[in-house]
Amino acid sequence: MTSTAPLDPTSIRRAPKVLLHDHLDGGLRPATVLALARETGYAELPADTEQGLARWFRESADSGSLVRYLETFAHTVGVMQTREALVRVASECAQDLAADGVVYAESRFAPEQHTDGGLTLEEVVEAVLEGFAEGCAAAASAGHPIRVGVLVTAMRHAARSREIAELAVTYRDAGVVGFDIAGAEAGYPPTRHLDAFEYLRQANAHFTIHAGEAFGLPSIHEALQWCGAERLGHGVRIVDDIAVAADGTATLGRLAAYVRDQRIPLELCPSSNVQTGAAASVAEHPFGLLAALRFRVTVNTDNRLMSDCTMTSEMSALVEAFGYGWSDLQRFTINAMKSSFLHFDERLAIIDDVIKPGYAVLIG
Hints:
alpha/beta, 4-stranded parallel beta sheet
């Protein structure tokens, strides 16, 4: 006789997970921030203890403002300006995710933000790739195999998106799986970077776009219909195009219907979305409605340091808020794996050989 594993954090941590939206500079260990600050001479940290620094990041990110949320990155980026620092941070990222049960992750970072110490864009990318290779090997040795793909990100307010897009193509056979743009949405529409997106499409390269987080439907429309995004980074504001009647009946607008019909993945980040004001609480997050309407929802952490979260805690919060069971968590995980930027056969192998067997053990 078989039995279902309890839906608690211990069991959820054992479940295989897929993470598509996680920022490398948003997931440092507080102890590592302190150590790198000492090693690099960075003297701007707002606290000098591990606990104090962790608390500062969380409280600063809880402002309800995306702009203030983004300001916390000055300190993590500030200590990531050497090759050694980048290798260490990437290695620890892979190991931390693997220990949390993540079997495939796509980690994103902006190379242009790590050149203040004299590194070239290419040297930045190569250091991060080296770190992930080191971290994946260490995780496998510890019994927690993980595969990590890199997304190189351009900043919306800058003018280097074409350069960064070229990096994505140059290193796509070395571990870079795609491209992204990030930063404050208001005033910086994705259409400012059309040349980068046209270049990527012509090169048969993958890309996602941060859209529909702090800004609404126009940002999502431009990302999809003007730029050709394959996924939406966050995309939570697609709910603005859905009307829910008193009896619970939902009517989708044309953009929402297009997103659902085309199976465009939504890289939803519940805790982060609450912090930046995109949702009032996890219980009120549009994730529940979007999942019920069968949008291709995925669960993500965004910035583990600022949100003090893991994939286990994000899934646990969704279980508590919406009463999800193991079959729901498996569906969200398979949604993410289907939506990754790996080749189809590689996606299928992870679904069939890792995810489904892993959940079968838990479901019983």
